[in-house]
Design brief:
5 helices; alpha/beta; Bact_response_regulator; phosphoprotein; Rossmann fold; Response regulator transcription factor
Length: 118
């Protein structure tokens, strides 16, 4: 059964590139450019969430806090992504399981996903 990864990022270029890479690696991928839809997840919960910190009108850290406070979603590993390297601490403080600064190496992303989904 392939692992399901959800990408929440409002940069279509990043979403496309990461989605293609993950599908190539055998993952099932869902994507959204709207952070609030992440909080509406009910069925088909992902095995991991790749969450951008800055999305239009949404702070990924707030989304992460809400996910981690909800029983249905609290155990989903979250890797927060941002172009701003100096907010890694606040991402982790919000409950993220890991942090990745943009631009990132795809190999590093894959290693983090492997670590958190096994």
């Amino acid at each position: 059964m392939p692992k399901k990864i959800m990408i929440a990022d409002d940069d279509p270029g990043i979403v496309d590139a990461v989605e293609m890479l993950l599908q190539f690696e055998g993952y099932t991928v869902t994507t959204t450019v709207d952070g609030s839809t992440v909080l509406d997840m009910k069925d088909e919960l992902p095995d991991l969430l790749l969450l951008d910190i800055w999305m239009s009108g949404e702070d990924g850290r707030d989304i992460c806090r809400q996910l981690k406070a909800t029983r249905a979603t609290q155990n989903i590993p979250v890797i927060m992504v941002s172009a701003s390297r100096d907010i890694a601490a606040s991402a982790l403080a919000a409950g993220a399981d890991d942090f990745l600064a943009k631009p990132f190496e795809m190999d590093v992303l894959l290693q983090k996903i492997e670590k958190l989904t096994h």
